Amino acid sequence: MPDILLRSRRHPSPHRTGQILVRIAASLLVASWPLSTLGGNFELRCDVSYSGKTETLAFPPVADPYRVKAVNINDRFRFKAVVIGNASGIDDVSLYVHDLDTGYPVLLHEANYTRPTPQRNAQPDALTGTQTVYSPRRGRELRYQCALLELEP
Q1: In 46, 78, 96, 137, which residue has its Cα 20 to 30 A from 116's Cα atom?
Q2: What is the pLDDT of residues 102-124, one digit of tens each?
Q3: String of DSSP letters for the chain
């Protein structure tokens, strides 16, 4: 049997194990930071309208999509935008709208954009157009439009 397939008899020392754990913790911490703090110059801006009020939400690129929090819209809807990418470009944009009318989130709308092109002077609806989502029980209406922007360095 070749030597490379044999198990090592050397056990890691507690000092080496501590170094490995510190490196893993540091890499997880860096992976959870928004990439805009790491040099990314992109941002997704969404105008979300409900009940006659419009709010502009900004979402920077992230490395870990599972850490992105959803935005509560008047306890009626939940809007979540996940922008995955790095300083050289955006890999994916995923948008989710959940209905909160039943007491627990129910997915109403999902949109995915693979490798979208950021723009410097984009119209507010440049990426998504204007999207309208209705809650099934009471017919409440949520509208949103998003643009992927390349920010000035």
Answers
A1: 78
A2: 888 999 999 999 999 999 999 99
A3: --GGGSPP-PPPPHHHHHHHHHHHHHHHHHHHSBGGGGT--EEEEEEEEETTEEEEEEE--BS-GGGPPPEEETTTEEEEEEEEEETTEEEEEEEEEEE-TTSS-EEEEEEEEESPPPBSS--TTTTT--EEEE-TTT--EEEEEEEEEE---
| Amino acid, res. 111 | A
> Could you tell me if residue 75 is left (phi over 0), alpha (psi between -120 and 50 degrees) or otherwise beta?
left
Position 138, amino acid? R
Amino acid residing at 25 = A
CB within 8 Å of 68: residues ≥ 6 apart: 59, 62, 80, 81, 82
d(CA 89, CA 57): 20
